[in-house]
Amino acid sequence: MSNFDFTEDELFEMANIDSESTGIENVIIFIGPTTPQHGHRVKISNIPNSYNTSNSFVITIPGYKEIGKRNTKFITNKVLDRIIEFLKINEDLIINYSEHKISTKNLINNLISL
Question: What is each CA distance from 63 to 18, 52, 103, in whole angstroms?
């Protein structure tokens, strides 16, 4: 397992957030539980409109550090800036979800899109 992979149990618990909730065209963000070894983070799909986490990279929260290889042909710097803007606006909500303090429905219903 690499330093940014999730276990199968963690993947089962992840919420897949698409452009309807983010306002970022074709981007899928995976929000899952926090693990002691990794802290707060989300996965971003490297493939447009894809829910496949095997081709993705990680952004840490807070800090917004990239881990893994980003497909810069799809996730350009401009798109990455929008993703980070979305994460910052929704940081508290994402952290609460990743710590199992709120439900997936609560997360999705309260996300602020761009």
Answer: 22, 25, 24
